[in-house]
Amino acid sequence: MSSLFKENDLWGPLDPSAEAGYGEDRPKRKGFFTDTSICIGCKACEVACKEWNDVPADHFDMLGSSYDNSHSLNANQWRHVAFIEQPSSRGRATVDLGMPDVGPPGSGDGAGAYGAAASEDPDASPMDFRWLMSSDVCKHCTHAGCLDVCPTGALIRTEFGTVVVQDDVCNGCGYCVPACPYGVIERRKEPEGAKNVGIAQKCTLCYDRLDAGKVPACAQACPTQSIQFGDVEELRERANQRVERLHEAGVMDARLYGNDPDDGVGGTGAFFLLLDEPEVYGFPPDPVVPTRDLPHMFRQASRAAVTLAVGAAVVFLGRRR
Amino acid sequence: MPDFEKGKAPSYVPPEDADGVAGIAGNDPFIMQGDGKGALYVPQGLIDGPMPTHYEPVESPFSNPLYGQQANPTRKEYDRDDNPMHPSPPQGHSEVFPFVFTTSRLTEHHTAGGMSRFVHRLAELQPEMFVEVSPELAHERGLEHGGWATIVTSRSAIEARVLVTERLTPLRVDGRVVHQVWLPYHWGEGGLVTGDSANDLFGITLDPNVLIQESKVGTCDVRPGRRPTGPELRALVAGYVDRSGSDHVPHGPIVTADPEGGGR
């Protein structure tokens, strides 16, 4: 059956801004490479984003999830820093600080926090306590579920390859909300009287700053360059080299997330370097754009319709006079 | 203040009549001293010099392992009824305040929070006063993660939300286990987010040289639940003062070492 869609419109590798109809003179695709191994959890990205985009305060409650009181991305949180405390695999033992000595570390009479492990099994590499920090953002997917299902065309693909909500077009229907595999986009509910209440809101990759030749607010504010902004192609190169260097240094857990054009959303404009499984950070392990299954769904529905029509025809035509 | 020129070689020897920066030799890089030389002994300025040593904080659960002199003998104290200090070894009753608490900062707020608590972008990042406890202490004292705890000293009692975290570990010191808790000190009255102030727990003892108060570490008790208010709060604190003997003025001897005893 010939497809209504061009190749890779819904699935597989694609240059999204070319597919959206921008000409040869369009800029290179822009995105973020967020290297969570150097994030210090300062939340400058959260504040810079909210200041630039005039996003209202979300809520004033302590959530108890380590130092993360923002909880997750939503209409009032376009950048979200996650804090994950991972217990040591060594188990919990009281720390014997021991008495100070003048020799090299471990020569004192106390076992010390690290001395104890070394004496038990020098071959095992126990995992120390880890405090993972990561700044989450809209992924600006190559195949963006939110954009594909939007009935009004409010969600558009920009010339930079990013996904942006036009807040004057959005009618607040909310179709985009369940379509996002990452749970990023939502409709703004509060506070009353704020701008764009009822409208779907999410990261714009600072479209207005890109137009002016500037860098997005979060990338500008990040003091460690954990959030790196640039051409997606070049960022992917840089990310691959970074993972290689981390592996050489023995950090075998380091991996990239969202950089593969063959994944369920065609790769993302904003991708990450993680130090553990995606689920640890609250990411879906295998995100798939819901519209991937669109041709199949229509085929099934067509078959059902044809079957119904044939059945009706048989009933009526076989009627005795 | 003299500086050290970037290109000056370590072998540089100043000529006889040199002055200013040119008079500093190439191997005298201690820019905080007038002559560029580092020193262990100083001719003046230190009341408790000249060599650094180890003293326990004024409020400590343990005896000083190095000396019979528990804490800094030259420290400045204020012997007042409203400034009771907790007993430390060798005095008795230090088990009334068995835990150590320390205060420091969060990234999101600035010092005592007088400005940052009024800025909504910062206030929403860290909205509530909390105390970090280890899972072992939480189990021992019946503290629930996300619940409330009351931290008590002989000066006051404050309440804070409980954050149970494995980043805090019980310590084994001098053959026994001591728990420590951590408090940020950014909260107080006023602002978009308010809470009890950690600094209410401290008394005043000062370092003899520059009179900086020891307001970062002390001993305390931790109880589950919110603190009482009004006269009941004062009664709670008074009970602790009574049981610990903190109300004895002066609060324990400053010099604890036996001068004839030769060290311990």
What's a concise summary of this model?
Chain A has 321 residues and is of the alpha+beta class.
Provide keyphrases for this structure.
heterodimer; A: 321 residues; alpha+beta; Alpha-Beta Plaits; four-stranded mixed β-sheet; B: 264 residues; mainly beta; six-stranded mixed β-sheet; 9% helix
Task: Provide a descriptive summary of the structure in words.
The complex is a heterodimer of chains A (321) and B (264). Chain A is α+β, with helices and mostly antiparallel strands. Chain A folds into two domains: 16-89 and 99-288, Alpha-Beta Plaits; 290-321. Chain A is built from nine helices and eleven strands. The radius of gyration of chain A is 25 Å and the shape is globular. Chain B has two domains: 1-39, no CATH class; 76-244, Barwin-like endoglucanases, CATH 2.40.40.20. Chain B has helices spanning 120-123, 135-141, 231-244, and strands spanning 76-77, 99-104, 130-133, 148-152, 157-164, 171-173, 176-178, 180-184, 205-206, 217-224. In chain B, strands 3-5-4-10-2-8 form a six-stranded mixed beta sheet. The longest helix of chain B is centred in the last third of the chain and has 14 residues, at 231-244. The relative contact order of chain B is 0.19. The A-B interface holds A 41-43, 46-47, 50-51, 57-62, 64, 66-67, 69-70, 85, 87-88, 92, 94-97, 99, 129, 131 and B 65, 106-108, 120-128, 130, 135-136, 145-146, 161, 163, 165-167, 169-173, 177, 192-193. Strand 3 of chain A pairs parallel with strand 6 of chain B, so a sheet runs across the interface.
